[in-house]
Amino acid sequence: MLPNFLHYFSAILALGLATIGGGLGQGFAGMSALQAMERQELGRDNTFKAMLIGLALIESGIVIALVMSLLMLLGAPKDMTLEVGLSELGIGLAIGLAALSTSLASSFVVRAATQGIGRQPFFAQKIITLMLLCQSIIEAPVLFSFIISLLIKTNMHEGMVIIDGIKNLGAGLVIGIASIGPSIGQAIFCQAACTAVSTNKNAYNKIFPFALFGQAFIETPIIFCLLLALMFLFYVPTRGLDFMPQGPVILTAALTLGLGSLGTGAGIGLSASKSCQQIAQEPNNYPLMIKLTLLTSTFIESSVIYAMIVSFLLILKISA
Questions:
Q1: Contact call for residues 99 and 180 (beta carbons, < 8 A)
Q2: pLDDT digits 0-9 by tens, 102-127
Q3: How far apart are CA 148 and CA 129, in angstroms?
Q4: Burial grade of 152 (CB within 10 A; 0-12, 13-18, 19 or more)
Q5: C-alpha angle 191-195-199 in degrees, rounded to nearest 5
Q6: pTM of the model
Q7: What's the whole-number mean pLDDT along residues 6-18?
Q8: pLDDT of residue 222
Q9: Cα–Cα dist 287/273, whole Å
Q10: Domains of the chain by range and CATH?
Q11: Cβ pair 178, 221 in contact under 8 A
Q12: Angle (CA) 319 234 151, round 5°
């Protein structure tokens, strides 16, 4: 009964979490757009355009979750085992948490962009361009989760042992949890970037490259988690390992780095968002804001680096 439950629950988990994030995100974005159109008649067409583009990008996470859920349901092996169930649970966690987080984060950008067009209707195209940049980068966690999920699906075979299932669960778990912190940071930072452009359109040429710079730093923790997920799938051996104690060690390593990424991504987003506000108020401070953001981000990154060191040491210990 347990393997079959995990099979169906995993498919529901992936799509269910994605629809929660997508539905709420699209609702928030649509509400903000309607408020902006009501307040500013001149920008209604561009606000509507930004809303449609934004809603479509928010929808992408749900589409990816739907594809993965169908692959799990329609491509299920004939003999459902506990190892397969654990592997599919990893897929459900990876896709579900990533789609939930990125959809909500993306909605913050659409809200800020539509409100910004209401304030600066003749600067709408620049604001939409910035919105597209931010939303495209925000989608990175769900794309990474989709890649890991496909690899997990590929690694499922009839001769799997319990450690195979634990490895696949750990890979999905770490990439799923790792999506949350950077998504929160992206939401805070990108909202501040779009708001800053609408506050001072003359600062656009400085805020646009700063948005690239800031988002790259915010995404760093999930890159570390992606590497750990790949280590689970391709580096950790299967034969010669027992569930006890190696199984709990694998899950501990996943939780260590996944949880370590939560505060890092959000913290960098908070710091960089304040820099955006300062650049909008005084564009000449751009070089100073770059230096300060780089310095603070480096210190904040140390948290996830410590977690990464511990996680990698745990994996090296059981792989030796």
A1: no
A2: 999 999 999 999 999 988 888 889 99
A3: 30
A4: buried
A5: 170
A6: 0.92
A7: 93
A8: 93
A9: 15
A10: 10-319 (1.20.120.610)
A11: yes
A12: 145
> Which tokens go with 101?
């987080």
Q: Can you spell out the DSSP letters for the chain?
A: -HHHHHHHHHHHHHHHHHHHHHHHHHHHHHHHHHHHHHH-STTHHHHHHHHHHHHHHHHHHHHHHHHHHHHHHHT--SS--HHHHHHHHHHHHHHHHHHHHHHHHHHHHHHHHHHHHHH-GGGHHHHHHHHHHHHHHHTHHHHHHHHHHHHHHHH--TT--HHHHHHHHHHHHHHHHHTHHHHHHHHHHHHHHHHHHHH-GGGHHHHHHHHHHHHHHHHHHHHHHHHHHHHHHHTS-STT--HHHHHHHHHHHHHHHHHHHHHHHHHHHHHHHHHHHHHHH-GGGHHHHHHHHHHHHHHHHHHHHHHHHHHHHHHHHHH-
